[in-house]
Design brief:
Elements: E1 2-7, E2 13-19, E3 24-29, E4 32-35, H1 40-57, E5 67-71, E6 74-78
Antiparallel strand pairs: 1-2, 2-3, 3-4, 5-6
Length: about 100
Amino acid sequence: MMRIEFTDTDGNQTIYIINGQLQKAWIFADNEWTDASEVYTMQYNTWNTLWQGYVGALAAWSGAGDYTYSVGGDSVRIYGISVNPTLADSLFSHS
């Protein structure tokens, strides 16, 4: 399962929840959840590729603080890093 949260430069929050076991996906935008399961494969392939990029970028991480790197002219900041945390099942629920 993947949960991706971000806030764009206009302050809009978006959340993606992708469940590989169920092959379902949901998107939260404009304060509303949308079932995106009909495009699950595209969502999974897109976010899994990005996720693997983040994992690769963090290979050089020292294990403390946040981590910033550049890709394609954009700056990516990963923060609040916690390795193998215990996560509530509710984080992966679209309700």
